[in-house]
Design brief:
Elements (H helix, E strand, L loop, with lengths): L1 H10 L8 E2 H7 L6 H10 L11 E2 L16 H8 L12 H4 L5 H14 L2
Parallel strand pairs: 1-2
Helix pairs in contact: 2-3
This protein binds a DNA duplex (13 and 13 nucleotides) through α2, α3 and β2.
DNA sequence: TAGGTGACGCGGT
DNA sequence: CACCGCGCCACCT
């Protein structure tokens, strides 16, 4: 499905050391209200290696997919390795590491999708 | 075809 | 804030 190919393009655009949410990925894919599908795809769809899925957290800033990275704490370790800091309660500090998308980002992705035929 | 299931999110309390 | 209910939607029985 095109949605998965769009997801791959968007996820690969998440900057090193930054974090975003399932809903934001869906939005950038041009599919509002598809946050659950992003989560579904990450756990079922065979994306190639190197897809930075660990940079995606839920809107509560919690690492909900811990068990899907091969064990508890793996996602946290990957993020710490790229310099992402956590709050005392264990949640991600989105204020400092959240991926901010400029309004132009949406049209930029639309252009990329068209160019890629998805 | 109908019903259940989530790596989710928002609005109300 | 935290907690809870409800809406969401592609997939899989």
């Amino acid at each position: 499905m095109d949605f998965y190919r769009r997801m791959e393009l968007v996820c690969q655009a998440i900057p090193y050391g930054q974090v975003t949410s399932y809903g934001q990925i869906a939005l950038l894919c041009g599919r509002p209200r598809h946050a659950r599908q992003v989560g579904y795809a990450l756990s079922h769809h065979p994306f190639g290696p190197g897809l930075p899925a660990h940079r995606i957290v839920n809107s509560r800033r919690v690492l909900s997919g811990a068990l899907s990275f091969g064990g508890p704490g793996i996602q946290r370790r990957l993020l710490l390795a790229e310099g992402v800091a956590f709050l005392p309660d264990g949640r991600v500090d989105l204020r400092r590491f959240g991926w901010r998308n400029s309004p132009e980002a949406f049209s930029d992705f639309e252009q990329l999708f068209a160019q890629q035929g998805v």
